[in-house]
Amino acid sequence: MAGRERRLMTDTVALIGLGTIGEGWGLAFASAGHPLRLHDADTTRAMQAAERIGREVAGARVEVRADLAEAVAGVAHVQESIAETIDAKTALFAELGRLAPPSAVLASSSSALLPSAIFAGLDGAERALVAHPFNPPHVMRAVEIVPSPRTSEATIARAADLLSGIGQVPLVVRKEVPGYVMNRLQAAVVGEAMHLVAEGVVSPEELDRAFPAALGWRWGVMGPFETMDLNAEQGFEAYVDRFGASYQQLTRTLCVDAPWTPEAVAAVAEARRRAVPRAALQERRRWRDRMVRAVAALTAGRGARG
């Protein structure tokens, strides 16, 4: 532990792109004691992020660098969080490959782009990977580590160790697939939810109200396979024997890839504004973060014993 504490206090992290995700990463890294260097194409935005991180994290060591080379000089880890466009990311990582120390891990916060595409023009792609956080990163303590075919196992291990050290739970995605793992699952749920609203099966209000109680309370503490394992007296195999065929038949009726109709989008948007006016969204986000932290505290250290 003493060695990890010393490492956390000395390893400098460069954050490139200081929107919502980049600033959230800043709060997560600063809370663990990492010195930070912030860089954004909009230096004012980087300075504002530095001020907010300093207010939120006592003793935070945060510097803003307008020059990218200065931002990454001597750092141990670079976390990119710029716009989710392949051209912008490939251009940036080509620069980072030239400017960052050869020993630094180069990580993208991309939520869906393939690592092999992001790092196509990068010399030294063995030290690059995607570290996809969940929003906001300082509250949602999970991260998908997505290597490209060229990423070394040593880089994967270093990234997982660093991110575990700031309280993240790493999920290593062992094969490139668009959207990685969690966004694919989320897309399936959201796509079917939009279809059900479009078809008049359920109202947006009722779906949002019922989802936490019907699925969320279990999924907040366990994954789908453990849910299945515990929902049959003799475990997972018995659940599959009993319900597997009917589930597969049901999946053939799903419309997760149906177009989102303008009418369904409007219905959801109107329902959300009735529930939370736009002016109250920031307060609702604070409520969300408090609730997520409370659930995390309840489930911390649950392990295999439940």
UniProtKB/TrEMBL annotation:
InterPro entries registered for this protein in UniProt: 3-OHacyl-CoA_DH_NAD-bd, 3HC_DH_C, 6-PGluconate_DH-like_C_sf, 6PGD_dom2, NAD(P)-bd_dom_sf
Superkingdom of the source species: Bacteria
Positions of the 3-hydroxyacyl-CoA dehydrogenase C-terminal domain: 179-246
UniProt EC number: 1.1.1.35
Pfam name, any one: 3HCDH_N
The entry's keywords: Oxidoreductase
One biological process term in Gene Ontology: fatty acid metabolic process
Domain 3-hydroxyacyl-CoA dehydrogenase NAD binding span(s) in chain numbering: 12-176
Molecular-function GO terms, alphabetical: (3S)-3-hydroxyacyl-CoA dehydrogenase (NAD+) activity; L-gulonate 3-dehydrogenase activity; NAD+ binding
Family: Belongs to the 3-hydroxyacyl-CoA dehydrogenase family.
Protein name: 3-hydroxyacyl-CoA dehydrogenase
Lineage: Bacteria, Pseudomonadati, Pseudomonadota, Alphaproteobacteria, Rhodobacterales
